[in-house]
Amino acid sequence: xxxxxIENLSISFGQNDKLVEAVKCLNLDLNQGxxxxxxxxxxxxxxxxxxxxxxxxxxxxxxxxxxxxYFNEDKTIELLSxxxxxxxxxxxRAISIIFQEPMSxxxxxxxxGDQVAExxxxxxxxxxxxxxxxxxxxxxxxxxxxxxxxxQSFPHQLSGGQLQRVLIALALCxxxxxxxxxxxxxxxxxxxxxxxxxxxxxLKKEFNLSIIFISHDLGVIQYLCDRVVVMRHGxxxxxxxxxxxxxxxxxxxxxxxxxxxxxxKYKLRRxxxxxxxEKNPDYKNWKDDINLINSTEQDRKNIELCQAKILIDVNNLxxxxxxxxxxxxxxxxxxxxxxxxxxKIHEGxxxxxxxxxxxxxxSLGKGILGLTQISSGSVxxxxxxxxxxxxxxxxPLRKELQIVFQDPYSSLNPRKNIYSAxxxxxxxxxxxxxxxxxxxxxxxxxxxxxxxxxxxxxxxHQFSGGQRQRICIARALALNPRFIVCDExxxxxxxxxxxxxxxxxxxxxxxxxxxxxxITHDLSVVxxxxxxxxxxxxxTIKEEGYPYQIINNPKSEYTKSLxxxxx
Amino acid sequence: MKTSIxxxxxxxxxxxxxxxxxxxxxxxxxKYCNTQVLENSFLDPFSKSCFENIRKxxxxxxxxxxxxxxxxxxxxxxxxxxxxxxxxxGTDRYGRDLLSRLIIGMRYTLLVSxxxxxFACLIGVILGSLSGYFGxxxxxxxTFFVNIFWTLPTILLAFVILISFxxxxxxxxxAIGLSLWADIARLVRAQVLSFKExxxxxxxxxxxxxxxxxxxxxxxxxxxGPIMVQAxxxxxxxxxxxxxxxxxxxxxxxxxxxxxxxxxxxxxxVFNGQILQSLIxxxxxxxxxxxxxxxxxxxxxxxxxKLYH
Lengths: 567, 309
Known about the structure:
The structure holds two protein chains of two kinds.
Chain A: E1 2-13, E2 20-31, E3 35-39, H1 46-53, E4 61-72, E5 75-78, H2 84-90, E6 95-98, H3 102-105, H4 112-122, H5 131-141, H6 147-152, H7 160-172, E7 178-182, H8 190-207, E8 210-215, H9 218-224, E9 227-232, E10 235-241, H10 242-247, H11 252-259, H12 274-279, H13 295-307, E11 310-325, E12 331-346, E13 350-354, H14 361-368, E14 376-381, E15 384-385, H15 391-398, E16 401-404, H16 418-429, H17 435-448, H18 465-477, E17 483-487, H19 495-512, E18 515-520, H20 523-529, E19 532-537, E20 540-545, H21 547-552, H22 557-564
Parallel strand pairs in A: 3-8, 3-9, 6-7, 7-8, 13-18, 13-19, 16-17, 17-18
Antiparallel strand pairs in A: 1-2, 1-4, 4-5, 9-10, 11-12, 11-14, 14-15, 19-20
Chain B: H1 3-21, E1 47-49, H2 61-66, E2 85-87, H3 98-134, H4 136-151, H5 154-165, H6 169-196, H7 199-206, H8 211-247, H9 259-266, H10 275-308
Antiparallel strand pairs in B: 1-2
């Protein structure tokens, strides 16, 4: 039975001269009691579609055509044309939303309990004195351990997972018929992600909910949804049952999305990309013997790498952050980010560093490069003790040790064009004597990372996320480094772009003989790129080994739970 | 563009052009427009008078820029029509042409304000970025001085400096600049603090850029916008302060005209029935300050638009 239907929906943003079509002629139906997954990359219009259902888009959005109908028992409500005050009664009551960022979706000045209570009061469902009990009931329903404490807590006092549970309670407390979940687990760690998804499944059964689940992550969609809609550039690419889509995708784009995601089950030489499937619809040999790296080959490579020279030797590294000092400047409270980490990186090796948020993995990467204060321990690079170097002594070494950050948006200076972003380090280190040589090298680098020479004069905001990350890589390569720290370098990118950047990194690694420290939270990514893996939890190294060892028979409990929570 | 912003910009352009041209367009070409003809004192606007003492026209380029040093004293009581002229805004108590004095006064006011804003920006940007970027001792010292300068009453601080170092242009702009730098330093410090955490600064460090290079070539271009907003707001404050000091007799001394000096000369005319004449310098001054404020607000709005869209 249909409960919601979207017909021919088109939405545009902006003024007449700069009109951007976010959604083009979309048709969707949601049935009673099913979970419909909408999957797509950033800019595919999936969130816009979801927000348009309760007309929550900003005022610059124009509903060009189409209609959205909500079938409530025998009544049909036209959501796009009813009055604003009637819509107020539907928002939260009949159709509610779980937002993506639990940290920013709650008001920091109100307690969590009050915010959920407000929803109940706004719809006048209960007398004022019964509201608190109802909120506590919902808090225990969504699996919050201490409902009373959470009721009194402000958002900053709770963890991301708890906040997401509060948001789910907020969305469900008025017993809506339809729940729209807009990437509800994207900001959470893998371990918590699975628990939240299981909770949603449970609640769906109990309250017979219909859920529209939006995600960029195909794994999550496969785990949760009954039916999938794949969106791209604002239109629907494919729609079918979940099992059907994942076993037998029809469209090239869908194939690309599914197969370009690295897996922990096998190790490839090169990831297939969306363009591969678009150029060649019958592209099947991405998983053949030539592209697959089997375990004997991995063993051989590992032995080779072990015999290579040690490039970086980290011994008992400890990193602490000072949290507060007393009047006399004496340290009263500190946080230990890394506790006694020791490992080696060989020449030409890719070391994967896996850990959840807060495990100290970024601090470790920055600590090696001297970007964070180190409390004790040593980092030896080619016989030089890095931790004791002054800024001046560091300078000549900087060109050999580089870093690529997670967020491609903030890693490029918005006021500098690409030409000066790439050539300025060359000027500082006096690598090339004149401007002509520098320019030639810059063009060369851009072409290496798959961009064009005419991009040189452009500014960062004119590029997409994937292109920016390529620019960051080109900039890091400008100084001919020996070692690069990739700090979550592909985490902020879409799946198809992520595959391209990963392929690029593998290619560059063998071309320039680089060693990488690849920091990530994603085991499947690290399985694809790394020769060796270190698992980090709360600042301590839990396990170290080759990818297939760690994935097939993990030794520590923590690694086991990490692998089990992978979807 | 909104009409008010357009008018503000137009008025400011006129003020700047007029004060640039200076003696080229004034009727009175003597230095400081100080030709006193007592017979002409307290003339109404648009009144015609044939008492004239300037006959020599400036010859050298210097005269056109800085005014003529000396002039012939030639009084003529007969009235050959060729020598008669119209005083557009009338004259003051010494019979000086008010329009000429306003034009040159505008020049001095703008000059002093510009110098003081540049001076304040220089100190503010350097100290603010050092304290924001390096923290520790720099921060302690700079915030200490910022706090001290905030507690001092502006006029009092200016008085002390002007009395100890003399009432000339250089001590005037230093006095005004010193009372404005603290705001800019605080703003720059806050902005540098937030940009310091951005990844592109970390990558610049990882590239081995020196700290000075990071501050001046990576961070400062990004905060030029907010600094411009603050600076144009401070321009209004500087004009106001300069005129206030001149009005109190602590600014540039007679016969140098500034908007404040002229205002002080003229305001008693209200009681003599020449309301228009006493209001004119005040209106010129108020419009000048208003246009600086409007332009500063406009800058800020535009920056906001960039931030939120």
